[in-house]
Amino acid sequence: IQRELPVRLNLPSSLLREMGKVISTHALLEWLLTRTVYLLLGIDPVEGRIAVREPRTTDRLDMIIDLAKLKNITVSVDTAKLRELLEQSYRERDALAHGIWLHDQPAGKWFLRLTSGNWQIPGTIGKTKRRINLQAKEYDSREAKVALQIIEGALELATELNDQISAALAASPKKSPTP
């Protein structure tokens, strides 16, 4: 049964705390991927912010893979798994950062309303756009903790990737960025 729920800003502190962790950990992930791109390009962060800008995390991974290949750097990190985690990470982060919060006070439940992407309405066949038929899913700090685990998994792989690239560049004068 669909019914209109009131939009709320005064979320429970446990949920706000976990949302903050998700958003700040995702920002760290973005920063690390960007720094890895700068490292491979041999530029400093100021030059990088001007030249590279801030592409999506999966686009940054593509740049890292391509640049590493150009420099004959091989890595053992599962970049396909990292890509999958990056895609999940930005979806989770974007949902929390851009979603609308609804509160079902009688039931004591919070819902996160999503307005982008597609979903399948229960009892129907095929997917529909959320912009046309909004989706609100029950959400609490447990879901935010799961999102955080996904982002932390991506951060762990991205750190490993950065470390391997740094080591390869340091080991070979040909691969090292010129000052």
* Shape category: elongated
Rounded to the nearest angstrom, the radius of gyration is 20 Å
Spatial arrangement of strands, main beta sheet: 1-2-5
> Helical percent range?
55-70%
| Cα distance spanning the termini | 63 Å
Give the structural class: mainly alpha
Query: DSSP strand (E) fraction?
Result: 5-15%
Number of strands: 5
Low-confidence stretches: none
The main sheet comes to: 3 strands, antiparallel
- Helix count, DSSP H or I runs of 4 or more residues: 5
Mean pLDDT, as a whole number? 89
Order of helices and strands: HHHHEEEEEH
Describe this structure as you would to a colleague.
It is a single chain. This protein is mainly α. The mean pLDDT is 89. The chain has helices spanning 13-41, 45-51, 57-70, 79-98, 141-171; strands at residues 100-104, 109-114, 118-119, 128-129, 135-138. Helix 1 packs parallel to helix 3, helix 1 (13-41) packs across helix 4 and helix 1 runs parallel beside helix 5. The longest helix is centred in the C-terminal third of the chain and has 31 residues, at 141-171.
